[in-house]
Amino acid sequence: MLALVLLSSCGDAGAGDPTTGRRSPTVGCVAAEQGYELRYPENWFKNDAGIAEPCRFFHPEPFTVEAGTEVAGIAVSARLHPASSEQVTPPPGGSPAARTVERRPTTIDGRAAVRVVTLAAGSALRPEGTRAVTWFVDASNGTFVATTSEAASAGRYEDHVEVLDAMVQSLRLFPPQNCSAAQPATDLTPQAELPEPVSSIRMRIIEAATACDYVKLAELAVAGDGTFTFSFGGGEEPAEFWRAAEATGEAPLRLLVELLDRPFGTRSVEGVTQYLWPSAYADERWDDVPPASRDELRGIYDEEALRRFEELGSYAGHRVGITAGGDWIFYVAGD
Prior knowledge:
It is a single chain. The protein is an alpha+beta fold. It folds into two domains: 2-173, Protein Transport Mog1p, Chain A (3-Layer(aba) Sandwich); 196-332, no CATH class. It has eight helices and 17 strands. The strands form four sheets. Strands 4-5-7-12-11-10-9-8 form an eight-stranded antiparallel sheet, covered by helices on one side. Strands 14-15-16-17 form a four-stranded antiparallel sheet. A three-stranded antiparallel sheet has the order 2-3-13. The longest helix is centred in the middle third of the chain and has 15 residues, at 196-210. The protein is elongated. It starts with a strand and ends with a strand.
């Protein structure tokens, strides 16, 4: 947990009065691993990198963030929440902790966003009636959330709201630093033989992956009529599963694009044609996989992995499946 320690100000912290928020955001702050940047007033202070992620806390007076208890008393806090906006944004009426009094949908950096004004219902952190403004912005890898509260305003709430709104207007979203597929979806192998529904969903998957848009990938995964398989372990949602794998140094998004750029095979399952990548997965036995299909795997797998498939007697790597109707049904490692 975190504690906020305010420090006494020494001299001029920047042009203008450091206690007022009526300055346009002019100083940039980049959270590369989270995938966003925004600007804040030059006479304000941000948290140092370390215990808290960069570009998380902003305040008109110097402060430090230390291990301890929940941060309180900060003017503006911002973060990239890993969940989708539908999961993070409060319902129109609010929640037991806070009643929504204003909800304004808009767009920020070309993304859907909503500005929510709430009144606290009374809690240990915020007394009843405490006003707060919170922004929720759709991001490719979650939801950008930024907020200010009357509880931390010291009589300057309106100024802090003005700063918050200007900071969010300056927000720019980009692929997070730890995304393995951050590249344009160009120079792909044409697959004109695919039926239109399959071709369409294939390109949408590739575009979402190369944009590092975990939320869109998860939407495509669950858009079909049936279930979507992404892990034999279960428990997590697709976006969380892939994001966690990327954070540990794996490359599921890059591998997804590489597989879909290889030739495909087909298989009929209960009368439904499945289009499968790579084509080697369409053959039940490794001995039946043509040499050309084995060659297609080079560049994805090394010779040791190919020998392992031969020992196992079948292709046991990651595979992608889409039905003839355009339902994305799995992207999963070998069982």
